[in-house]
Amino acid sequence: MKTPKKILIIEDEKTLARALELKLTLGGYEATLAFNGEDGIKLLDKGSYDLILLDLIMPKMDGFTVLTILKAKKIKTPVLVLTNLSQQNDIKHAKKFGAEEFFIKSNTPIGTIVNRVTELLS
Amino acid sequence: MNPLEHKKTILVVEDERPLVQAIQTKLEKNNFIVVTARTVDQAIDYLENIKKIDAIWLDHYLPGEKTGLDFVAYLKNPKGAWSTIPIFIVSNTASSTNVRSYLRLGVSKYCIKADHRLDQIVEDVKTFLLHPEK
Amino acid sequence: MTSTAYKLKVLAKEKENTRRKLVITARKLAATAKKLAVIAREKESARRKLVVTAKKLKSLYETLEKKVFDRTKDLEQIRAKSDAILTSIGDGLVVVDKAGKISYINKSFEEMLGWKAKEIIGKSMVQIVPREDLHGVKVSFKERILTQVLSGQKFVADLTNPFYYIRKDKSRFPTSSIVAPVNLEGKIVGAVEVFRDITKEKEIDKAKTEFVSLASHQLRTPLSTVSWYSEMLLAGDAGRVTPSQKKYLEEIYTGNQRMVDLVNTLLDVSRIELGTFIVEKKPTDIVKLVQSVINEQKPQINEKKIRFTSSCVNKLPLIKADPKLLRMVIQNLLSNAVKYTPDCGKIGLQLSLHKDRKSVYIQISDTGYGIPKNQQNKIFTKLFRADNVIGKDTEGTGLGLYIAKSIVEQAGGELWFESNENKGSTFHVRLPLYQSKKKNGYQRSFLTSL
Question: What is the ipTM, given to two decimal places?
Answer without folding.
Answer: 0.87
